[in-house]
Write a structure and sequence with these properties.
Shape of chain B: globular
Oligomer: heterodimer
Number of strands of chain B: 11
Order of helices and strands of chain A: EEEEEEEEEEEE
CATH class of chain A: Mainly Beta
Number of domains of chain A: 1
Distance between the termini of chain B: 36 Å
Radius of gyration of chain B: 13 Å
Shape of chain A: globular
Helix content of chain B: under 10%
Strand content of chain B: over 45%
Strand content of chain A: over 45%
CATH topology of chain A: Immunoglobulin-like
Low-confidence stretches of chain A: none
Number of domains of chain B: 1
Number of helices of chain A: 0
CATH superfamily of chain B: Immunoglobulins
Order of helices and strands of chain B: EEEEEEEEEEE
Number of helices of chain B: 0
CATH class of chain B: Mainly Beta
Distance between the termini of chain A: 41 Å
Chain lengths: 119, 113
Amino acid sequence: AQTVTQSQPEMSVQEAETVTLSCTYDTSENNYYLFWYKQPPSRQMILVIRQEAYKQQNATENRFSVNFQKAAKSFSLKISDSQLGDTAMYFCAFMKHKGAGGSQGNLIFGKGTKLSVKP
Amino acid sequence: NAGVTQTPKFRILKIGQSMTLQCTQDMNHNYMYWYRQDPGMGLKLIYYSVGAGITDKGEVPNGYNVSRSTTEDFPLRLELAAPSQTSVYFCASTTLNDGTEAFFGQGTRLTVV
């Protein structure tokens, strides 16, 4: 069974600074996807960034980037130039690749990290 | 394009009452899911469906039932509400094609008293 661990329940950062959220996971699969989702106070789950395990290059989306270490099973999220609107819960999630046996496309989530961006 | 629509957004139930959480998507996605989110926890899978007429249990199915008569709709039924079912419920859908983004509804906050 896969597990996802986020070891930082809460973090804070000053506006315009950089923050890194940690995520580790456990799996015996070789092909899979990793995601970071943002959940603001509105409750909406918003996809921030996605990484495919077979791609060595780290994914980036504007101010968001990941450090994907497959051998270490680590998937951290870096937020640069933090903005007040980045205040939210951030969830790391794992999904088996569609070609993997038993993959039904469901996500396995960590417990989340509550990020506060301070002015 | 509405995406995934859940109703209601909020509900208070008394112990032993029943209700159905509605979920519909207009993206023609085959795969649909129900998750629950307890305070301080990530989302956990209740039930999922890989297409019309096909459903299966997830990690925490006890106390719930689902049906999938059409591609668009995936309602979640609570038969005898219990305080342990107080949670936020999310419906999601995906195609499982390359890209694989899951689209989520706005969530339903359910309180059982």
